[in-house]
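Exam revision sheet. Question 4 asks you to relate a sequence to its structure. Input first:
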Amino acid sequence: MPRPALIRIKSTKAWEAILSPVRREILESMQELGPCSIADVARATGRPADGLYRHVAILVKSGFLAEAGTRAGRRNVERLYDAAANDFAAPHVRRGASASERDAVVRTADALAKSAVRSMRTSAAAGRIHCERDARNFNLMHLVSWLTPERFAEVRELSIRMGRVLERGRKERQGDLYEVFTLVAPVTRTRGTHSIPREGSRRKAASR
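Answer key, structure tokens:
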């Protein structure tokens, strides 16, 4: 039976199971391997199998993995697991959400940002980061800008389009392996003129 394309995790508590780098690696391996045993994942990740059982149990309980039957192993029957979906969406955090729910969003961003930085640090240490104009193999951008709702929607659509390109790469598995992290978030500043929209922007917003 094919996996669902997308599952939305229902609670922020369940979602936080995937913030562990080890669990993300387990999930990614199972998405690539299909139904497999913990021993298969251990071989694919280079991690000892004994250290994966607890993480797999947490991922099953949280809805990221599903039991996928059994098979005869060399010594005994092996339990099989598979990713519950090809992709996962975080639970909705609506206006008026609790502080713990909002903080779960922040912890997610923090975990993924750290993961991306670790990948870049490891590649830099291995001499794989190239900065020449015609041979650059990474992209780094940081901007602070005013965005209307329409412009934010445009930025978000560009991010979604980039996700489609990356998803094709995950299926074809050609070229080099990359990690991509994007974040667009409101800026809250309580002091300084930079925290205040321009007068024209305020009038335009008020006239809508």
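Marking note for examiners. The first helix runs from residue 12 to 15.
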